[in-house]
Write a structure and sequence with these properties.
heterodimer, A: 527 residues, alpha+beta, MetI-like fold, 3 domains, elongated, B: 295 residues, mainly alpha, two-stranded antiparallel ribbon, 2 strands
Chain lengths: 527, 295
Amino acid sequence: MMVRRRNLSALAAALLLIVVSAALLFLPVYHFEANVYTKRSGNTFVGDERYQAARAEIDAMVADYTARGIETEVTEEITERVNSKGDTTSLIVFKVNKTVRCSGWDFLKTGFPSSVLLKIMLGLEALGLLLALAGCVGSLDVLWRDLKGFARFLRTSGAALALAAMFLSVIFVLYTNVIINRQISLYAAGVAPSPGERVLAAADALIYQGAGGEDTATLLKSTSSSVIWTWWLQLPVLLGLTLCLTLVRAGRIDKALQRGLLYAFVVVVCVVTLYPFVIMFTSAFRTDAEATDINFQYMFPVNWMWGNLNHILSRGVLRYLLNSLILSTGATTLALLCGIPAAYAMARMRFKGRKLFMGFVIMSQMFSPVVLLVGISRLMMNLNMNDTLPGLIFINAAFNQAFAIWLLRGTFVSISPEMEQAACIDGCNSVSALIRVLLPMAAPGIVTTLIFVFINSWNEYTISTVLINSDVNRPITVGLTQFAAFSMIQWNYLFMSSLLATIPVVILFMLIEKHLVSGLTSGGVKG
Amino acid sequence: MNQILIRHKWEPYLWLLPSILLMGIFVVYPICIVFKLSFSEISRSGVVGEFNGLDNYITAVTAPEFGSVMLNTLIWVVSVVGISTLLGFIVALVLNAEFVGRKIARSIIVFPWATTLVVQASVWKYIINYEYGALNNTLLNLGVLSQSVNWRSTYVVDFIWECGIGIFVTVPFVTFCVLAGLQSIDVSYYEAATVDGADFWMKLRNITIPLVRPSLTVSTVLNIIYVFNSFPIIYTITRGAPAHKTDTLVTYLYMLAFSEQRKGPATALSVVGFVILCLCAGLYMIVTMRKEGDE
């Protein structure tokens, strides 16, 4: 029944997380200030006739707003100055202001666009808090002795989720404020973002509790909003909490600090790496206007334009993808058909000129088709393969040949030749020894080589731009540049087709990443 | 005994034949064409004329932009390879540590490597756009900036961006090469060092770096070649503009050959590039062959 110290500190950290998350959501962190009416009165003094008249006008305004259910407050700004005759006069500015403070919760109740996303965030946050709470109870080990394992699970997952919720709530506050600011000001300026009326109604509900009515647009023009807790104030809190949690888990301060820094570094690297991909992904679903006008860009598209996909497909992207598929499959097949026998000979046979060929293979890994472009295009013209897919297939296969031989040879060498030797004694010739014995054993290495050549050919751009002129023969890397004409770039379509070109390759790459590297460095070189 | 029986003397050559044919026709022959063309007169329409000695080379080398192009190429290769090797090494060290989500982090790092360079370059072109670029937008949203910044004010800045993007796409390759090297290091070395009281830096200098050096060499040499030949980044972002000031040798010779239709000087530059590549390749070959000889 002992509550261990570590459990206690975990409990404290979780509770702290809960409090901060809840505070972020329920404290009135959004601040709206609307200047609904201004009256300037020159050459007056407090209490004189003109002052009275202006004051009466303001009071009438206030009464008017109060009648409509909008609570306001009046401020007076008095500026005294000496005029040319030497008399002291003053300028009095009366302002009718409305100040509103809203919590994140209030925001969620309104119908601002993208609030679905925010609701999901909220759901996660709530789940995290619940789990953390349950975990706290569980970690007390009082009632559920038998459920100890389950309680530990609850505590750790709860703490993790609650931590995630903390980060989410910062993004939440930040993002909502951006949405409110941008959408309101755009609407008020007359440039309505796509769901205009909805924004208006939502803003009305959030700031004027629905009392703005028809005048909302006018009222909103003078509204400025801000978040009281700016994000850089929240960051130290978050960092402190993260540190505190890691500390608790690791049990030692210096170790915990080191771990915290490690995670921070990994997070930074991942964020930087993913940034262009996130941009590509979100921009692919934007409308033309959203993609090329910074005023319309939120973190995510207002409406996810699946129509962009249809559009690019209608402009031949399917054909380009097919071409790329044919090209890469062809080049891979050819490269392997020529490469496997060569690698086999290099790995298993001794003959004159072996070193020479080896040197050539290593050298030609370095030859890039780019410096030889002029020669290649002329060769293709001579062979009548200019502007054809077979031409590209041959070039890609040839320039990947050296690498394929290199990788395959490494694989073959690493497999003991005894089996083949036995097969040869049994009467197999070397061809069937290769096909029946060696290839099945070398399958992982062959797959790696295959995928690598495939990816290289799929991603190849430079030779294709030079060799391919007609639209029907373009591979995707060249085809997608049709959306990037020098004068006008259709970013959303460009990125949508880029997505289609990228996703399969990234998946393939993840599959072979481990094998490829060992092939590249150690495995491939082992002789 | 690592061989199998050869029945005929010519058998190995038969095995090599398809490969030799393929590379002979599509790799070696273009090299010959380029060499031959570089000593011939070529008209704008591409008709090959007579032997004209070193004229093409002289035209190419005396062009006003030649100096800056070569300098750019040097800066491009040195900065991209150097910085990405350093960064890749650091990232690999971090990714080699045990932590939650390591697999995910590794998969994420692969992304820039797997994506075709045209796509990468286009995305970055969009990100650094002044009027509607995503970088401005993100920074405005985060409240870091209060108004848009022109990220591409001069061509020097443009070139720096191009180098940056080059580094961005090169780091993963280095990372994975180094990771492969790191994984092959026996943990017992570190354990022994810890017992002897070595700190992190001592372990790094005396165990990690010497044992990772072979991987680093391979990745550096390969990177020099890849980066030297890298075409899409510069072509997509600036096309060498203004007046070839952001061109490297490869993009410059492409522009000469296919936009300006000056194939003569272009082939001469091809030969220059090819010779530079051969020097690097020779270096690589020596390194690899020596390693092979060790075993």
